[in-house]
Amino acid sequence: MSSQTKTQNTDELLERDVIKFLETHIDFFERHPDLLSSLRLPHNSGQAISLIEKQVSVLREQNTSLNKRLETLTENAKANENLNERINSLTLCLLNADSLDAVVNIIEKRLSDDFNADAVVIRLFNTGHPTMLAHPELIDWDEPALGAFEKIIVGRKPICGSLKPGQLDSLFNDDAGTIGSAALIPLVESNQSTKCYGMLAIGSQDHMRFRSDMGTMFLKHLGDVLACVLRSHLDIK
């Protein structure tokens, strides 16, 4: 072993000993304040600074980082509170709707105005109820169109992301070419049921608005409420 290697190994051992000593004697610099103020550390600017100045600098950086995290948490909390208020307001409006027309109008207007949706579509399966006759636009799906959404209906969970051209055309008609991403919400009777009343589609021109990795808790809640409301207006048994 060369003398240089021995020296290097000795230095590493000494460093570990110093670190261990300081960790177990945290009041060392309190008992030796003169040493603390006389120590000099290199700075990025090339100038040496005292250990105290270095500690102050580190604490300032940590404080700035913590303040930014706190600001982010506060902003997220406000955003969640605002979202919760809009969800509650929409839910109450739907529960107080006195007709299927009112339900459709509330969904289309509130999702567009309060949730910045570029397109909102409700598609229902024909239950044979007389009310359906007044809304052919809600049930005018042929078998090929229904087949394009079979996995979503069977899965009974909202999905988000980019849609295939055939799916876009079946849902959004003339607006299909402007939709960059969408959320599809199957309107399922309940968590224990496989019965599906139809589907709610929310489209956005922004390709990143609805992503496959985003949470769907709000969408699931909206689907549950809408399914419940539809059941009462269509007398679905």
Query: Regions with pLDDT < 50 over 5+ consecutive residues?
Result: none
Helix-residue proportion: 55-70%
Q: Give the CATH class of the domain at 98-234.
A: Alpha Beta
CA-CA gap between termini: 88 Å
CATH architecture grouping of the domain at 98-234: 2-Layer Sandwich
Proportion of beta-strand residues: 5-15%
Question: Mind telling me the C-alpha Rg?
Answer: 31 Å
What oligomeric state do these chains adopt?
single chain
Which sequence of strands runs across the widest sheet?
A: 3-6-5-4
Helix-strand pattern, N to C? HHHEEHHEHHHEHEEH
Q: Residue-averaged pLDDT, rounded?
A: 79
Shape: elongated
Query: SS-based structural class?
Result: alpha+beta
Give me the CATH superfamily of the domain at 98-234: GAF domain
Count of separate DSSP helical elements? 10
**Strand segment tally:** 6
Task: Offer a quick outline of the entry.
Helices cover 56% and strands 14% of the residues. It has 237 residues and is an alpha+beta fold.
